[in-house]
Automatic annotation (TrEMBL):
It comes from Trapa natans (Water chestnut). This is Pectinesterase inhibitor domain-containing protein. It comes from the Eukaryota. The keyword Zinc does not apply. Belongs to the PMEI family. Residues 1-24 form the signal peptide. InterPro entries: Invertase/methylesterase_inhib, PCW_Enzyme_Inhibitor, Pectinesterase_inhib_dom, PMEI_plant. The lineage of its organism: Eukaryota, Viridiplantae, Streptophyta, Embryophyta, Tracheophyta. GO terms for molecular function: pectinesterase inhibitor activity. Keywords: Disulfide bond, Signal. SUPFAM superfamilies: Plant invertase/pectin methylesterase inhibitor.
Length: 186
């Protein structure tokens, strides 16, 4: 009888040890956010990244899947609102010139981004994470084409919002690709 009691105690101890080790090793939501946001490299972008996640957390125990959902949703939202801003600016742009050309390029870029993140969202809901990355992969080039054309255009005060929104899009695209990669390669 004493041997069974000792074996039961050892078994309970091992189970408790294993469970506590798993709980201690589990990465917290804030740890994951920091790890993702470190890929932004610049402090201002790191702050934007952390703020974006924290403003849209559903729970304090959101996992990588939830963080990926946030990046896809925010990227789609930003791409849609930025395209609407571009369309508004295009209405007021007259004639040919670097500004109008830049806006036409940005419109095209943001149509690409919207399509990419709608597709990524569709794949995400079906847990096809490799296809999420594939769908998001045109994002950096599309955003960069808009940024490049904006840099070459004469800017007025009305362009400041577009430049800022485009900068945020660059960060969101990066966040989306990083989180989707962590889904596949934790």
């Amino acid at each position: 009888m004493a041997t069974n009691h000792l074996a039961d105690n050892i078994c309970c101890f091992v189970i408790i040890l294993l469970i506590s080790q798993v709980l201690c090793e589990e990465e917290t939501t804030q740890d994951m956010i920091k790890k993702i946001c470190l890929h932004t490299y610049v402090e201002e972008e790191y702050v934007f990244c952390c703020r974006t996640f924290n403003e849209h957390l559903i729970s304090t125990r959101t996992g990588i899947r939830g963080l990926t959902q946030i990046t896809i949703d925010r990227s789609l939202h930003n791409a849609t609102s930025t395209r609407n801003l571009v369309l508004g600016l295009l209405k007021n742009a007259t004639g040919r010139g670097s500004l109008k050309d830049a806006l036409v390029q940005c419109n095209s870029s943001y149509m690409t981004l919207i399509k990419a993140f709608k597709l990524a969202s569709s794949y995400f809901t079906r847990a096809e994470y490799e296809k999420v990355i594939e769908a998001e992969s045109p994002g950096p080039l599309a955003q960069d084409k808009c940024a490049w054309r904006l840099d070459g255009a004469m800017k007025s005060g009305s362009m400041d919002q577009l430049v800022e929104s485009n900068r945020e899009m660059r960060i969101l695209v990066s966040m989306s690709l990083v989180t989707a990669n962590y889904l596949l390669y934790p």
